[in-house]
Amino acid sequence: YGEYGQFSPDGKQIACTWYSDKDKRYSLRFIGVDGSEPRVLYQNEEVVYPAPYGWSPDGRYLLAEFSTKGGVNQIVLVSARDGAARVLKTLDWRYAGVLNFSPDGRGIAYDFPQAENTSARDISLLATDGSREIHLVDDQANDRGPVWTPDGKRVLFLSDRGGNVGLWAVEVSDGKPQGSPELMKPDVGEISPI
User: Fold this and answer.
1) 5-25 as b/e, with b when 16 or more CB fall inside 10 Å?
2) Nearest to 184 by CA among 155, 142, 141
3) What is the pLDDT of residue 192?
4) Which residues make beta-bridge pairs with 49?
5) pLDDT in tens, 15-66
6) H or E element in which residue 54 lies
7) What is the pTM of this model?
8) N or C: which end of the chain has fewer CB within 10 A?
9) Are residues 166 and 185 in contact, defined by beta-carbon separation less than 8 angstroms?
10) Among 73, 74, 75, 139, which Cα is nearest to 101's?
């Protein structure tokens, strides 16, 4: 069975985590939206769970988080052409909650727990070439679920910084936050971005 289905930018394929009863393991797979041409993109005994989060805007890479036998999680780019995986960041036992490509494909916004003993998250921006990482939203509040606006000028996120969970936005320019986050809609409740 498949989990975490992600449509390709051209809408012709779906990437997903696939579990095989026969092998008793998970892999990353592609399948045509018409059910044609299923194929294994990535499978490795050291990766116990590969979860796709989205495609690069040009459709060349799949953004994924790998959970390894060693108990660590990794933010990874997987080539849609040949399945070659490039680790951008190795995390610890904690995992990123949401990962999203910027519209220009040069950055990845993701949320991650602030510390080992808390569920509160902050939002970081990681360059897709792995060259740099910055804190985009760094606050004592629980900031999670980053999603880019289509023009790439802002990242929307959920935060309880106002007491209740609201929808907030931070402007981004040249891979850096510009100013303080702004409340877009208060009291949205416990929702999750798709």
Assistant:
1) ebebeeeebbbbbbeeeeeee
2) 155
3) 80
4) 67
5) 999 998 888 899 999 999 998 888 999 999 999 999 999 999 999 999 999 9
6) strand 47-55
7) 0.91
8) C
9) yes
10) 75
Q: Which two tokens stand for residue 59?
A: 């459709």
Q: Are 187 and 164 in contact (CB under 8 A)?
A: yes
Contacts (Cβ under 8 Å, ≥6 apart) of 99:
53, 54, 63, 65, 75, 108, 109, 110
Residue 148 near residue 102, CB atoms below 8 Å = yes
Structure tokens at 149: 């606006």
Written as one letter, the residue type at 179 is: G
- Token look-up 């449509």 returns 7
Mean pLDDT by 10 residues, the chain (194 residues): 92 94 91 89 95 95 96 96 96 91 96 87 94 91 95 96 93 92 93 76
As a whole number of angstroms, the distance between CA 23 and CA 42 comes to 14
In this structure, the dihedral spanned by the alpha carbons of residues 54, 57, 60 and 61, taken in order and rounded to 10 degrees, is: -30
The answer to whether 123 and 136 are in contact (CB under 8 A) is yes
pLDDT at 162: 81
The DSSP call for residue 111 is E
Tell me how far the alpha carbon of residue 9 is from its chain's centroid.
16
155, 159, 148, 186: which is closest to 170 by C-alpha?
A: 155
Average pLDDT, the chain: 93
